Amino acid sequence: MTFQLGSALLDACVLAIVEKEDAYGYSLTQQVQTVMDISESTLYPVLRRLQKADYLTTYDQPYQGRNRRYYKITGQGRLRLLELSTEWQQYKAKVDHVLLGGEQNG
C-alpha cells in the first residue's frame, strides 16, 4: 500500500539522502523509490526547486566519457532538513496516536 504524501516529505527524503553523501539524479530516484512511488521526470523538477532555494548545489564529474551531475546539500539545506524532520516526527506521532488508539488532543 502506498500513501500519497506531500512535497515536503519528498524534499525531506531527498535532503536526507544527499546529507549522507552526494548523489546523482538516477541514484536519488532509486533511493527515494524505496519509500515512495516517484519517477525521474518527477524528481528532477524537485531537485531544481531545492537548488533554486539554495538547499542543494551541483557539480559535474566525468563518468564513462560523460559528465554526471551530482547534488550536494548546503548549510541551508541541512537547516531545512532539520525543520522538515521535526515536522515529520510531530506528524508521525499524531498519526500513530490515532492509528494505535487513543484520543487526539488538537
UniProtKB/TrEMBL annotation:
Residues 14-81 form the Transcription regulator PadR N-terminal domain. Pfam families: PadR. InterPro entries: Metal_resp_DNA-bind_regulator, Tscrpt_reg_PadR_N, WH-like_DNA-bd_sf, WH_DNA-bd_sf. It comes from the Bacteria. This is PadR family transcriptional regulator. It comes from Lysinibacillus piscis.
